[in-house]
Amino acid sequence: MEPLALEDLIVAFAKLPGIGRKTAQRLALYVVKRPREEAELLAKALIAAKDQIEHCATCYNFTQKGEPLCEVCRDTRRDQQFLCVVAEASDVLAFEMSQFYSGAYHVLGGVLSPQDGVLPEDLHIDTLVERVRQQGVQEVMLALNANAEGDATAHFIAQQLMPLTKVSRLARGLPVGADLDLADSVTLSLAFAGRSSL
Amino acid sequence: MEPLALEDLIVAFAKLPGIGRKTAQRLALYVVKRPREEAELLAKALIAAKDQIEHCATCYNFTQKGEPLCEVCRDTRRDQQFLCVVAEASDVLAFEMSQFYSGAYHVLGGVLSPQDGVLPEDLHIDTLVERVRQQGVQEVMLALNANAEGDATAHFIAQQLMPLTKVSRLARGLPVGADLDLADSVTLSLAFAGRSSL
User: Fold this and answer.
1) A-chain residues within 8 Å CB-CB of B41?
2) Do B15 and A93 touch (CB under 8 A)?
């Protein structure tokens, strides 16, 4: 019985992950109560995020439009001989927020999952091997989710990189089955310190 | 270290009530991953909600722009002789979703709160009294939050309406201190059935 515009906004909010109908309603009612500028700010940020975020030509991390390389790859103070391999660009944020990591990244764009049709050629594995060969990378740390697909992907990549460089993975300080981007900074830094050679 | 457009979106999401930095990040990353159309849909719904939602000339419930009266006030099947008085238009949604209520509403626009400077003249109390006088309303049920301010507001309104009509309030089936719009439909319908005369 609510106005169409309100119902539309509730439905749009409820499409976001982890936002149920009740929370969506609460968010929509909040927007209706607040000044128009606040709704505009969020609306513009949504469009800008879609239009201005691209992927780094080297590591596939997020980068602002017009910057072919991401901030990490452009930063000469970062150790470009140490690569942290993650499944998604969002995993980079988890490392960057914890502020203990000073190397570079390589974003795979997913993990191997034959039943979902994700094969090695669908991930940025070839470019990782190429990068390790050309840049004289000294260590590649595999930071994938601690589950079957993450392990299988790590194993597959390790097989290809071990002849070329040192390969390590995050210590099993991560709770088994947990998503990497949900880990807190302390857990993540402990897992980093205890990383093991493959 | 994330791109500016991503950071802007995270900050914009984090301004919504109940959305912390971590959740905002998760929502922003989701938006970046999904097709542009989805971001557009939410962006348009935000602006439309601000531009197209107005308040009903009779009861102050939400109404779509161009409709001076809300859906409840326009609906001839609704009992316009029975008024449910609520603090906010969002409380109307809680009643409408539970689907047991067939009367009309009157939205006060808040509750009395002298320390926050909310006085009787700041609420739609005069128009409520006028409406009861003119429409021959048979019962006014006060459905305000079960806390000190809600009780004080109910008492103030009851004093003015009792010479004119029957005045009731929701049964104390509501957990004391809880917000009305968080109540589930069953609790709300029990509270409705057990409403008491004032």
Assistant:
1) 12, 15
2) no
Chain A partners of B104 at a C-beta cutoff of 8 Å?
Answer: none
ipTM above 0.85, yes or no: no
Pick from B170, B173, B109: which is nearest to B140 by CA?
A: B170
Cβ–Cβ of B23/A25 closer than 8 Å?
no
pTM of the model: 0.73
Interface contact flag, A9 B49, Cβ < 8 Å: yes
Closest by Cα among B71, B59, B73 to B128: B59
Please give the Cα distance from A64 to A73 (Å, whole number): 13
Tokens of B41: 């849909």
Q: Could you please report the per-residue DSSP string of B45-90? A: HHHHHHHHEEE-TTT--EEETT-SS-HHHH-TTSEEEEEEEESSHH
Q: What is the pLDDT of residues B18-75, one digit of tens each?
A: 999 989 999 999 999 899 999 999 999 999 999 999 999 999 999 999 999 999 999 9
